[in-house]
Write a structure and sequence with these properties.
heterodimer, A: about 500 residues, alpha+beta, nine-stranded mixed sheet, three-stranded antiparallel sheet, 17 strands, B: about 100 residues, two-stranded antiparallel ribbon, flat
Chain lengths: ~500, ~100
Amino acid sequence: MTLIDTRTPNPKSFIKGATGDWEIVIGMEVHAQVLSESKLFSGSSTEFGSPPNANVSFVDAAMPGMLPVINAECVRQAVRTGLGLRAQINKRSIFDRKNYFYPDLPQGYQISQFKDPIVGEGSVFLDMGGAEHIEIGIERLHLEQDAGKSIHDQHPNMSFVDLNRSGVALMEIVSKPDLRSSDEAKAYLSKVRTILRYLGTCDGNMEEGSMRADINVSVRRPGGEFGTRCEIKNVNSIRFAGQAIEFEARRQIDILEDGGSIDQETRLYDPKTGETRSMRSKEEAHDYRYFPDPDLLPLEFDQAFIDDLAQHLPELPDDKQERFIKDYGVTPYDAMVLTLERESADYYEAAVKFGNGKRDGKAVANLVNGDIAAYANSQGLSVFETHIKPGQIAGIVDLVAAGTISSKGAKDLLQVIIAEEPEGEPAEIVERRGMKQVTDLGAIEKVIDEIIAANPGQVEAVKAKPTMLGWFVGQAMKASGGKANPQALNELLKKKLGIE
Amino acid sequence: MSVDAATVKRIGRLARIRIEEGEVAKYQDELNAILGFVEQLGEVDVTGVEPMTSVTPMKLRQREDKVTDGGYPDKIVANAPLTEDNFFMVPKVVE
């Protein structure tokens, strides 16, 4: 692969060194476990957490004479993912053997795709906040088998091998070296995960290892020649990815500034120390001796197959985001937050469309991304997982729109639903608890007159300093038990006090 | 194409096959004989010929995504020299 620099150096992401600024260059290989019932080339289960070697067939254990037969759903999942990455789909691809020796790889080779992957070049768009949008190139996506698992802490001088994962389908998604900071790398991982989850092609669960990343990191002078890279293997959380990149970049800069040079090598990130360390010795330099797997014919399909999958693809996060901005008038930031998870986007939309469906999408977004998100966070949940129903959100927004409650009243009402009446119907709660705001001008006027009469000193002061009006608003609010309509109150106060 | 002694040793190491110093020359000769034999194919002009992937006109067979196999861990580890709780046991390998 020829390296082409598509980015303009951005001083914001430079790292300061003793001898000047440095720029990080990052490329990623994301291994995403395909959501399927059975394995890529055998009929055994992909279920997580089964007893040792329970999900293993003779094919997975590489018994002599066993032959691989490809799972059609895994092929569809790879094509769907390729479409979600706006990538070229290759109608003909080839499976190769990648040879290496390890106890959790009984075949002695991994069936993968080398020269002719199922998916070619594509792109992922990242929203870096504000007006900054960047495009990250996808080099390819290929299908391959996962290996088994070795456990080293069960015995003083033996390793235990469980082949349950052996043969499970993985998609390796390879980016171009287009990322320039740990923040971009984290945003990329998060965006890829969102896309995979929208598509339903991978659950993106990094704790269970169904999505992991190998991160290639190098440093260079801003805009200069690409440096020598190190590969950080098997990073299993987005936060760790950021920490590993920061550490690794600093390590490389220190070596270069001391006049040294970087050895291309594989490294491991240790979350306990926050450091990366060398993983394989150099004399073991890898030579995978790829060659086409003679057990498998080329994988071929036609355009109609691709078109059919494309037609049934769900709406993708970027499209949904754009539609939310256009149809519901929400800010780009709110749209981004709302579409991070497909279920949260559906939840928001259900609230907007509830009942007659003619309510302000922006007001709903403010409530969902504001107080509801704060409550959800405090419970360690996503907004759609809280007990608050879209209908209740719609009810609150409608009450504010009708002027029945103020926005302050809406907050109080939400607290009632959160803490006291989880099943409550907003309009009914407001009615029963007397939470309606007072819009009756006569009643408000009476309160104001009383305050003005009791505080002549303040009345003089506010004439000289109009910002003092806030004090009167506060007093009047307090006197009305927080139920006065703030807008009516403000206007009336200004009129009575003679300020503009 | 031919291999030198260093390549023979490296191939042995990658395949985890021990090759004694005294055997290197023998394997080098054998490998070079094989490579020389295969090299005869270079005499044929294959410009514009698609690589053949199958002698019969068939497509890659695919299966539906159903669980039809597995569930016999005792059989899987039956031939293993050492096992515990249906795990394979191998000499410790930590990188």
